[in-house]
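Q: Could you fold this chain for me?
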Amino acid sequence: MLLCVRAICAESEERAAVLRGPMDVLICAMHAGRSAPLPSPTEAMRHPFTDELRRELATDNAHQAYGAPDAVLAKLHQLAESTGAAELKLVTPVYELADRARSYELIAKHNT
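A: Sure. Below is the predicted structure, expressed as structure tokens.
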């Protein structure tokens, strides 16, 4: 079985949260039945997340892998084990291509 997981890895939890912000905005739009372009991290920081939206995001994000390398790898292993997935497909929806490439580099580097 193949499991698709959103994975955003950065040098720190704080940086990963900034990189995740644009996707959080898109998830909120999808929950509201709207489509939207991917905002920049700066635009995402200004998004008015209500408490209800934050709860929805927490539920959605609990099944994804975001954070510093150790946290991301632990989550990926946990997701694979709990679902029985033999293969993971990582999707890294971040605003800047360099941040996406760095995320994959960090995951590969720490997955040894």
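A (continued): The two ends are 22 Å apart (CA to CA).
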